[in-house]
Design goal:
Bacterial Protein-export protein SecB, four-stranded antiparallel sheet, 4 strands, elongated
């Protein structure tokens, strides 16, 4: 379980003017997630004093082909488990980090940073850094007209 998520630094930059960026039809966006330097620390939590696995993260969004900008976040996240955290750290250091824990940390990071990344991309004049849902009221109206076939 993720007990703490802390953003330490944000770096964002465009390499082109907004007018130049608008000319491009297809821009590849690359997402780079890096989880590193696990450390077992004792932390005061809502559940009392607990040992947690503190992991540093970097989440970078790179606008490539053409290279027009980037957004980069760095911070730390604390993971708590009843498992032996020292053993978990040893596995991680040996290059055998458990995939489920990496997934939980990475998904928490993206969930926390996606809204900020969208605001930064808009402020910089870059395309949205994450896919934005498209609302289509015409499709929604068609669905309302279809029978539900509900029998109570």
């Amino acid at each position: 379980m993720i007990l703490n998520f802390q953003l330490i630094s944000v770096e964002s930059k465009t390499y082109s003017s907004i007018e130049d960026i608008r000319k491009y039809k297809n821009i590849n966006i690359n997402y780079d997630v890096n989880l590193r330097n696990p450390l077992v620390v004792v932390e005061q939590t809502p559940f009392g004093e607990k040992s947690v696995l503190r992991v540093e993260y970097t989440f970078a969004i790179n606008y490539l082909s053409p290279n027009i900008g980037h957004i980069r976040f760095e911070g730390v996240s604390d993971y708590y488990s009843e498992e032996n955290l020292a053993e978990l750290k040893e596995k991680w250091d040996a290059g055998k980090a458990p995939g489920d824990i990496q997934n939980e940390l990475a998904n928490s990071m993206v969930a926390n940073l996606a809204p900020l990344a969208l605001m930064l991309s808009k402020a910089l004049g870059l395309p949205p850094s994450m896919p934005v849902p498209v609302i289509n009221f015409q499709q929604a109206q068609k669905k309302k007209e279809e029978p539900t076939y509900y029998h109570g």
